[in-house]
Structures are given as C-alpha cells and as structure tokens.
C-alpha cells in the first residue's frame, strides 16, 4: 500500500473522529443548556400528560422570559422533578371556591380541565403569591401534589424549563398545551 493511500485513510478516520466528537459536544451542549427530557410520573397531569410519557422541555425559555399562566413547567426539587401547570403569578391572589378558580377575585376559566376535575378540586385560599414565586397545580386536581397541598409556592429558580413536546410513546407525539 502506498504512503499516499495510508495518509488518505488516516485523514479520513481523523475527519470521522472529529465529526463524532463535535456531534457529541453539540448534543451535550443542547442537553445541558437548551433542551432536556423528563418522564411524567403519576396521574397528576391527566388528561394532558399521561404517566410514563416522556416530554422534551425547553431550558432556555425562562432565561429570557418568565413563566406565564397555563405553561406546563418542570420544577426541580432536591429528590425529584415535578411536572405541573402554572396557575398563579407573583403578586396575584389565588382562591378556589366550589371548584372554580379565582385570580384577584375574578373567575378564571380553565379550558384545559375536565368538568369532573374542576368539581373535585375543593376549596383553597385566598392566598397572595409573593414576588419570585408561582402557584402551580396538576390538571388532575383530585390527586395532584401541588401548591395547595405539599409542594407549596414555587420559587422562580426552581422552574427549570417549559414542557414543549411529548416524544414518547411515539404514537402520542404532539406539542404540550
């Protein structure tokens, strides 16, 4: 074999190695700083998200913006991450009467909830949300551990991303609402 052919093969291998290292570096950067995945555990977000579904969440969005009412967010706590919906924003007063949500004494329509889930919500509050905190709930209100009953108000820096896309099971591929 000629030295030109050997050099060509070595260069080809070196190019492949560089391409693989760059691809892995880009993937790690995206996973660390921009997108990550999370598995939905439990039934607290039914019917929007099902137990065992895997979602991609956007880690960058809240570096440039703040969570909005209705966003499905990933909350990082020391031993577990939670997937919940933002309901109350800093400075607002939240109250639930007979399953109806009131924000600053105005009834708020929760289009993402079933009638049954609304009726099983119970009463809560009123509670005024301090600065840098959010009030979150699961869509399956009867069984959700959330700001009403265990998670408490969520600090802004505990919200690590916004759920964007259901990626597993493959038959459920869609944007989260």
UniProtKB/TrEMBL annotation:
It comes from the Bacteria. It holds the Pfam family Peptidase_S26. Gene3D superfamilies: Umud Fragment, subunit A. GO terms for molecular function: serine-type endopeptidase activity; signal peptidase activity. Residues 13-167 form the Peptidase S26 domain. The chain crosses the membrane at residues 20-40. Its EC number is 3.4.21.89. CDD domains: S26_SPase_I. GO terms for biological process: signal peptide processing. One of its GO terms (cellular component) is plasma membrane. It is found in: Cell membrane; Membrane. The active site is at residues 44, 84. Keywords: Cell membrane, Hydrolase, Membrane, Protease, Transmembrane, Transmembrane helix. It is a single-pass type II membrane protein. It catalyses: Cleavage of hydrophobic, N-terminal signal or leader sequences from secreted and periplasmic proteins. Belongs to the peptidase S26 family. This is Signal peptidase I. The lineage of its organism: Bacteria, Bacillati, Bacillota, Bacilli, Bacillales.
